[in-house]
Amino acid sequence: MARVAFVTGGIGGIGTAICTRLVHDGFTVVANHHPSECEIAEAWKKDRAAEGITIDTYSADVSSFEDTGRMIAEIVAAHGPIEVLVNCAGITRDTTFKKMQPAQWNAVINVNLNSVFNVTRQVWDGMLERGYGRIVNISSVNGQRGQFGQTNYSAAKAGMHGFTMALAQEGAAKGITVNTISPGYVETAMTLAMDDKVRNSIIGGIPMRRMAQPAEIASAVAFLAADANGYVTGANIPVNGGLFMH
């Protein structure tokens, strides 16, 4: 039977590429979306079906432990235990620290970092019991190097890798790997909507002189999710075109 892979923020630009790649790799894939995105999710499912891909979607506010628990229980009842988890849900609320309000700080920390606890905690016990699991946390180059106007986002994304390294140690002897991927700038609807001058300025600072394709992030996820790569854990894999080397 195919392993079940669950992707939070699965209907976004990067999430879609991850879901699609994991289906092609033989996983049963389930995607999460925010409760406010139910209509978008239905259209997304139809688009995937038109590509010959079946992906079930479930709504939950992953910044809520209770709502996440409800969703995970529904997924497990319908599809079986989750053996691959990709924490991809994320938002931005960019502004300089001088102007940042508590609501902007808390929203980003809750969705980008607290969700990683909320979701992973729901599947962790089952992974321990079965002696198998793959957890992949989608961080960001800005969690490694910081970014002007993103104290909230950079803190949350750096925190994701701290979580990865600690949990990797707890799962290592139990057949569970926990890793981080830190993408640089990725060509999605969001970056394509940028002002041309801003986008070209960003691209000019990337040694490869282009943004990543979402499929290139998905390829790194597929590597970490594979049975064959069970000796990689606690790692932070940069996929940033040379933008930041550490």
Describe the structure.
The structure is a single chain. This protein is an alpha/beta fold. The protein has one domain: Rossmann fold (3-Layer(aba) Sandwich), CATH 3.40.50. 49% of the residues lie in helices and 15% in strands. It contains nine helices and seven strands; from the N terminus they run βαβαβαβαβααβαααβ. It has helices at residues 13-24, 38-50, 65-79, 102-130, 141-145, 151-171, 189-192, 196-204, 214-225, and strands spanning 4-7, 28-33, 56-59, 82-87, 133-138, 176-183, 236-239. It has a seven-stranded parallel β-sheet, with helices on both faces. The radius of gyration is 17 Å and the shape is globular. It starts with a strand and ends in a 7-residue tail after the last strand. 44% of the residues are buried. The mean pLDDT is 97.
Furnish the topology, listing elements before pairings.
Blueprint: E1 4-7, H1 13-24, E2 28-33, H2 38-50, E3 56-59, H3 65-79, E4 82-87, H4 102-130, E5 133-138, H5 141-145, H6 151-171, E6 176-183, H7 189-192, H8 196-204, H9 214-225, E7 236-239
Q: Biggest sheet: strands, sense, closure?
A: 7 strands, parallel
Q: Strands of the largest sheet, in order across it?
A: 3-2-1-4-5-6-7
Distance between the termini: 40 Å
* Number of spatially distinct domains: 1
- Listing every helix as H and every strand as E from the N terminus to the C terminus, the arrangement reads EHEHEHEHEHHEHHHE
Structural class: alpha/beta
Number of continuous helical runs? 9
In CATH, the topology is named Rossmann fold
Give the number of DSSP strands.
7
Strand content: 15-25%
What is the CATH domain class? Alpha Beta
Q: Please, what is the average pLDDT?
A: 97
The CATH homologous superfamily is called NAD(P)-binding Rossmann-like Domain
Helix share bin: 40-55%
